[in-house]
Amino acid sequence: MLSREEVDRELTRLSAEREAVESALLALQDHPGRRLLEGATLSGRTEERWQLASQGLSLLWTFFDRYSEALASARAVRSRRVRPSSPELAELSELLRGRAVTVSGAQLPDAARQLAGPARLVEQVSLSELMDRMNTWYATVLEVVSAADAVWSALPARIDLLLAELRRVTMLAGSVGVQAGNHPLGDDLARLERQLTELRAEVVADPLALWRPARVPSQRGYESATSVAAAQAAAAGVVDTERFDRAGRELDGIRVELEQLLRLRDEADERLHQVADLLRRADATLGEARQARGEVLAKIAATEVPAVPGPSGALRDGLHQAAELRQTGLWHRLAPLLDSLEEQAAQELQRARASLTEVTAPLAVRAELRGRLDAYKAMAARLRVAEDPEVIERYEKARWLLWSAPCDLRAAAAAVARFQQALRPAAGPQDARRYDGQGD
Asked: Where are the coiled-coil regions (predicted)?
């Protein structure tokens, strides 16, 4: 039996608990998630759990009424006199600590778990047990409404914005000829729209499918929650946005590719002119190479001059095709073709230049030999041997070979070397190194 002081303390504690539960139930009743769940057409996991939670919400108010009635009865007994008698203390002890609350057995969350004997129609429970059951059901209901509200707050509006952006990108794609069925990017855009539409329908009908709780949820209202605060903490979790985020990243990638096509549309004319200019320069270089080849054949003897290749007809056909694609606005087909043409045109110009260099190589050798002969002549004058008959003879021989046509490069190179050797006896070590090509 409780003492008078213990009764007063217990009444104060239970009254505070009742006020906390009432505030929590009113907040739960006004919770936006609850209102949305009651008006939505649900499916899947959300439908299953809301069927249980909606029953639990009704039970919570029933339990709260029983709890309030029992607490009011205890207060009525306590208010009879300042110092209650022993029978009144015994009655208060029973009301506050004993199983004095009558509840329908079907309304108890664990009624189905009673395996020993048939389920009772009514059951007597204490205020403490009734509070535990209310906290448990409160946690179950709060988990469902909070999770649904979190998902509905996080995803539908964002999906709508992404769908709007996707449709804008689709219109942009159409402006450069990218459409479903004729380009992979168009197929990707159509697939993304289907996926986002399906995701939005799933979010609306089954939000809990995209909820990741911080703990395993209380599925049947059996798990005990010691307080309203504990129940609120147990409802924590995160929204699974992976599918939405993945669609957003994919759309960003498509947008980047489309922006490249848009840049191509703006730059196509200039790039086509650049390719045509490269081909014109390559043709001009090949023309120089053919002209130089004729000159080499006429002026240089005993040498093999490589043939000059003709212009690339395939490149000109490709340039004509690119111009047609530009005219018809098929940018997605023009992009890879123009990239290839630019690379091939640069290679064509490089090939023409290499051919010119290869063809004119004998003329370059002759010019180098002429330069060396002039340098050795200047050295002979400085060494005062320019009037030497042998030096004069070797110089004239080399000069005749280098300035006659056709020029025999091998004989001319040998004559220049003999003229150089004629200067060695009169040249010092420093001059010898210089005219041997070892000095500055």
From this structure: 251-278
Q: Which residue has the tokens 């009635």?
A: 69
Average pLDDT on 405-423 reads 88
Report the DSSP pairing between strands 407-408 and 300-301: parallel
Q: What are phi and psi of 146, to 5 degrees?
A: -70, -40
pLDDT tens for residues 266-276? Answer: 888 888 999 99
Q: What is the C-alpha separation between 198 and 416, in angstroms, rounded? A: 88
Tell me the C-alpha distance between 256 and 60, whole Å: 54
Name residue 430's amino acid.
Answer: Q
The C-alpha atoms of residue 240 and residue 213 are separated, in whole angstroms, by 10
Contact 172, 202 (CB under 8 A): no
Q: How far is the CA of 346 from the CAs of 127, 270, 300, 336, in angstroms?
A: 90, 16, 31, 16
Q: What is the DSSP string of 403-436?
A: HSSSEEHHHHHHHHHHHHHHHGGGS-HHHHHHHT
Q: Give me 150's structure tokens.
A: 């979190």
Residue ranges of the domains in the chain?
4-112+120-240, 264-359, 362-435
Question: Mind spelling out the 3-state secondary structure of 285-338?
Answer: HHHHHHHHHHHHHHHEECCCCCCCCCCCHHHHHHHHHHHHHHHHCCHHHHHHHH
- Residue whose C-alpha is closest to residue 74's, from 52, 53, 98: 98
Q: How far is CA 321 from the centre of its chain?
A: 35
Residue-level pLDDT at 200: 95
The residues, ordered by sequence, that sit 6+ positions from 263 with a Cβ below 8 Å of its Cβ are none
At 308 the pLDDT is 82
Among 78, 128, 140, smallest CA distance to 101 is for: 128
Hey, what are 340's tokens?
A: 């290839």
Tokens for 304?
């093999």
| Residue 440 CB-density burial (10 A; 0-12 exposed, 13-18 middle, 19+ buried) | exposed
User: Model confidence over 3-42: pLDDT tens digits?
Assistant: 888 888 988 898 898 888 889 899 888 888 888 898 889 9
Q: How many CB atoms lie within 10 A of CB 222?
A: 14
Q: Where are the alpha helices (DSSP H) in 206-311?
A: 228-234, 242-299
pLDDT tens for 293-328 read 888 888 887 567 778 888 778 888 888 888 888 887
For residue 70, how many C-alpha atoms fall within 13 Å in the half-sphere facing its CB? 29
Between the alpha carbon of residue 38 and those of residues 25, 35, 49, 137, 253, the distances in Å are: 16, 5, 13, 18, 40
Tally of CB atoms within 10 A around 213: 16
pTM for the model stands at 0.61
Residue 238 has φ and ψ, to the nearest 5°, of -135, 155
